[in-house]
Amino acid sequence: MISEKINSAIEAILFANGSSVEPARIAIALEISESEAREHLEALMNEYSKSGRGITIIRLKDSYQMVSVKEYAPEIRKVMDLRRNTPLSQAALEVLAVIAYNQPVTKSFVEQIRGVDCSGVIGSLTAKDLIEEQGRLELPGRPLIYGTTENFLRCFNISSIEELPPLPGDDGDDEEESGDVQLTVEEVIEEVSKEE
Fold first, then answer.
1. Please, which of 22, 82, 87, 180 could form a disulfide with 77 given CB 3.0 to 4.6 Å?
2. CA distances from 161 to 21, 146, 147 (A)
3. What integer best gives the mean pLDDT of the chain?
């Protein structure tokens, strides 16, 4: 298959799928190697980002998705008659930051850091598909462990969790006291909000 046809086929697959697709699945469908599929996907990503189109291709962990460009969100909302989702509360942002930077974590870990019950907030973040259950710990009671989702990456416009800004004071110094944890979480939230 010639390069242009491969690119066109990849566009069609991403558009029709509507969610993220792994390069391995594309490689199987087009009967090419996975590395070749990745090369075509990266080339298409660059082409879309340079062309100024209303759609683009993004990488989420180890998969790719076709999405609209965020600058056109107001126009898309008007056409689709969508109301802006209510923003996350301060508590939800704090819980999300704790989970994102320490995942996978248990509810009790999050509650230990925040010092308050987080059941409702964790339920809300799960319903918004920002976090998900990722199994159970092999401890008495087998507590659930939580981590972030692909939707979290999409919402914060990052490809992987490694792109989160570093935590303040993460330069190897152990001078922080346990009382500074709340301040650290708030600073992290401010940094992540700037990234949006």
1. 82
2. 18, 14, 10
3. 81
